[in-house]
Each structure stands twice: as C-alpha cells, then as structure tokens.
Amino acid sequence: MSAQIAETQEIKVAKKPAEALLSKRRRKLLVDPLNDDNPITIQVLGICSALAVTSQMLPTTTMAIAVIVVVVMSNLIISLMRNIIPSRIRIIVQLAIVASLVILVDQVLKAYAYDISRQLSVFVGLIITNCIIMGRLEAFAMGNKPYDSILDGLGSGFGYAWIILTVAFFRELLGSGAVYGMKVFEAIGLDFPNNGLMVTPVGAFLILGIIIWVQRTKTGYVEK
Amino acid sequence: MRQSNAYVIGFAAILTVIIGGLLAAAAVGLREPQQKAVKLDTRTKILSAVMEIKEGDDVNQIWEERISSLVVDIDGDVVERLDDGTAVIAESIDVGKEFKKSPQERLFPVFEFKGDNGEIQNYIIPVYGNGLWDRIWGFVALEKDLVTIKGVRFDHKGETPGLGARITDGEVQDRYIGKKIYNNVGDLVSVQMMKAETGDASIYDEYHVDGMSGSTMTANGVNDMLMRYFRYYSNYFKTIDSADQDEIRKAEQVDEVIEDQQPMKENVQTEEVQ
C-alpha cells in the first residue's frame, strides 16, 4: 500500500498568516476527504480494516471513533513537533507516536468496552499500520500548523468513518437482518432471509465496490 | 546542528522515555477497570448458561445473590486450600492453565446457582478443550439431578467463522437444552454432536444433538471436551444428594437404552481427539 502514499502528497498547502477560523481553504481540508479525496474510495487506503470489522454496526462505530481519535491526535502531536523532529528518523518518530496512541486506545477499550474490544481483536492494534494515518502524518502534519492538521485529521477520519459505517450498515442489515443489533425485518413483520455472503469479507468487497462505483459516477473521478 | 548524530540519538532517547512512561502509567492506571471488565465478562458468561441476561442487568448483583462456588479435585473432594496454604477461589481459577496440568493435579471450579428460595437449582461447570484451529471453552449448566443439561455457553478463539464458530450461536447452544449426560444404566455417555446437519431436532435421542454442517472437526472437539470434563467431575457429582443416583450409579431399564443407542453408534466418536 505504500505506493499509494505518494498520491496523498499533492495536498501541500501554502502557509498564510492570520486566517479565518474556517476559511475556504480550511473548509476544503475538512470536506475534501469526505468525498472528492476520500481515503478509502479514492486513495484506496485502510481497506484491510474496512473489510474486516464491518460485519456489524457497533464494532464498526467503535473502530471509526478509534481511528478518528488516533488520526487527529497523531496529526496534532506530529504537527506540534514538526520543527524539532530530525528528518532522518521522522518515519520512526511518527510510528512511535501512532503506536503509542493506538495502545492507549486499546487499553481504554479493554477497560471500558471489553465486549467490543474482543470483537475488534487485533484490528485495533492494526490501526498502527492503517495507511491513512501514516499517510496524513507524512503528507500533511509534517509541513502544516497544528490547527490545520487537526482539521485535516478530522476530515480524513470522518471520510474513513462514513464509508465503513455505510458498508457495515448494509452488511449487518442484509447479513443479519439487523441494525445495531436491532432486528429491523422482524420488527416490521417481514420474513427476510439472512444473506450469509454479507457476513463474510466478500460482502464488504461488493458493497465497497458499489459505493466506489456510485461515487465515481457522480464525481467523474478517473484513475490515471 | 539539528541533524547531527548526537541530536538524532538524543531525540530518540527522550521520545522513548516520554512515550514509555506514558504507556506504563496508562497500563497501571487502567489495570483495575480492565480486571473488572474481564471478571464481569466471565460472570456474565457463567450466568447466561442458566438464565437470560438482558442488557442493563446488574450482573454483579445477580452473581452475589445467586451464585456460590467451590473447588473440587478429580476425586470429587472439596479443595479449600492449596498445599502452600493459600485459599482457593473458584472464580480466579484459570481453567486454561489447569488444562495444561495432568487431570490428577487439576482444580475444578463448580458454580452453584440458587433459585428464589435459596436452594441450589443448577450446577455450572467450566469446560475447556481443543477445537479445530485453537482452543475452545465454555460453561455447562446442569439441573440439580446432575443428569440433565440446563444450558451451555461455548466460546472459541479461532474456529472458522460461519462454520465451527457457530458453537457460539444461541441456536446451536440451545440444541443441548434438556439433553442427558448419563444413560439409564448409569454410564457416562455425555452428549454427542453428530456429523451433518438435518435441522430436525426430533430425530435425535436424549444423548445426541444435530451437527453443524461443514464443521465436524469442531463438533468432535466439543464432544471430546464435554466427555472429558463430565468424566473429571463425575466423582464430585456422586457426592451430591440431589443427584439422580438411579441414573448416575445404578443400572436400570437396560434394554430400552440399548435400543436408543444402537442406530447412531457408528457415527459416534468417543476416541480421544488430540
């Protein structure tokens, strides 16, 4: 996946003094990753966890929150440290920061959301290797101010979150006939057979493919 | 200046110390809630073998009111203290660790579930064994006759999702309800999960349950696990007054049993699966 990190590097933004809190440029930082530059569907990063954890809504929501927290916090920390990080070991420093944040998230989940942390199992730990995070650090936080980096992190985090939540919604609905564990089809009195395919990662591939298809039809994005 | 080797090494060292300290502090600070979470999870699993646990139920309170526990050895004698004098607490026994010892040295926890009138209604025992890919474990709740199964809860580490992992499904676990582990002549027969899945529970007798299609190896592991643990606990079962002694010890109605057993004999796997 490292080849794709290069793609993210085009988003280098020039520094300007005294800007509005949500100027047009900053809004772009926040909104772009939601659609036009979505980390999953356009940059094709973070696919692994998008396939693995999305069979139910609840763990997916937790995963989304965890990724948002980690990407925002690591963007902020790296951005604050960007002028003192020796460039020769910058990747290692980024990795150390991300890994520490992920371990913190994992520990907190184990303490306060034990069930969900068991369902997510290794995938919380694997946030470390989620290319979205390292990609944002290297491409954005290393060269931008803290506040901009937070916005960028929020943008990327939510860009990741809405995609995996959409995938999880359809997988849980079609695979288990439920949303957040609530049996919707039973509730409205419909006898809907569960689709076993949707419970497996194959279902995630299909739904992700459909999302990308719809999105690219609308935005007209073509891979060069 | 900033790029000198000394700066790089110094930076790395300071970063390591700060991050290491932070993580250590977090680990220590969160240890207590984590242990609480694990304990609550175990209690929920044990209780859910005998009763429906709903979201929002105060599991700890139910536990305090309903559960009393003890520890026995392979001979059925109650163990209160270890050789070095430390008290034995059933809840803190790691069944997985005990599993590595020889059965003679193992400690076996028993959880007694009391009904509304304070009398013991069910006995819950932990079970542990090998599935197809990795370890499987669970809790089996027996009625006070110690013959009939009240409910089971299985869990696993790495069984195939959609196949062997179905042992955690309520639908599969419910198949065990009302089954018997001793036959009428007092032999321990355990409950065998069959090969292949018919979806028709009515064709099985009291000692067999419907299989899971495509997961015979996991089912074998479950069968083996149940058989072993019922055997380990059988000496203890004999010491309990409410136990159905007729079924556990004495031989009666021999012919009926042989009829029951015959047609399924060929599929039953009782040999040790390692």
UniProtKB/TrEMBL annotation, chain A:
User: From what superkingdom does this record's organism come?
Assistant: Bacteria
Localization in the cell? Cell membrane; Endomembrane system
The protein's annotated catalytic reaction(s) are:
a ubiquinone + n Na(+)(in) + NADH + H(+) = a ubiquinol + n Na(+)(out) + NAD(+)
One GO BP annotation is: sodium ion transport
Transmembrane ranges, per UniProt, are 61-80, 92-114, 120-137, 149-170, 196-214
Q: Where is the signal peptide?
A: none
Query: InterPro entries of this UniProt entry?
Result: NqrD (IPR011292), NqrDE/RnfAE (IPR003667)
Molecular functions (GO terms): oxidoreductase activity, acting on NAD(P)H, quinone or similar compound as acceptor
Keyword list, A-Z = Cell inner membrane, Cell membrane, Ion transport, Membrane, NAD, Oxidoreductase, Sodium, Sodium transport, Translocase, Transmembrane, Transmembrane helix, Transport, Ubiquinone
Gene Ontology cellular-component terms for this entry are:
endomembrane system; plasma membrane
The keyword Secreted appears for this protein:
no
**What's its EC?**
7.2.1.1
Assembly, per entry = Composed of six subunits; NqrA, NqrB, NqrC, NqrD, NqrE and NqrF.
Q: Which family does it belong to?
A: Belongs to the NqrDE/RnfAE family.
Biological function:
NQR complex catalyzes the reduction of ubiquinone-1 to ubiquinol by two successive reactions, coupled with the transport of Na(+) ions from the cytoplasm to the periplasm. NqrA to NqrE are probably involved in the second step, the conversion of ubisemiquinone to ubiquinol.
What is the name of this protein? Na(+)-translocating NADH-quinone reductase subunit D
Q: Which gene encodes it?
A: nqrD
Automatic annotation (TrEMBL), chain B:
Q: Please list the residues that carry the modification FMN phosphoryl threonine.
A: 216
Major localisation = membrane
Transmembrane residue ranges? 6-30
Superkingdom: Bacteria
According to its UniProt record, the EC number is 7.2.1.1
Q: Could you tell me which InterPro entries the record lists for this protein?
A: FMN-bd (IPR007329), NqrC (IPR010204)
Q: Name one Pfam family in it.
A: FMN_bind
Summary of the function given for this chain in its UniProt record: NQR complex catalyzes the reduction of ubiquinone-1 to ubiquinol by two successive reactions, coupled with the transport of Na(+) ions from the cytoplasm to the periplasm. NqrA to NqrE are probably involved in the second step, the conversion of ubisemiquinone to ubiquinol.
Q: Which family does it belong to?
A: Belongs to the NqrC family.
Name used for this protein in its record: Na(+)-translocating NADH-quinone reductase subunit C
The protein's organism comes out as: Cesiribacter andamanensis AMV16
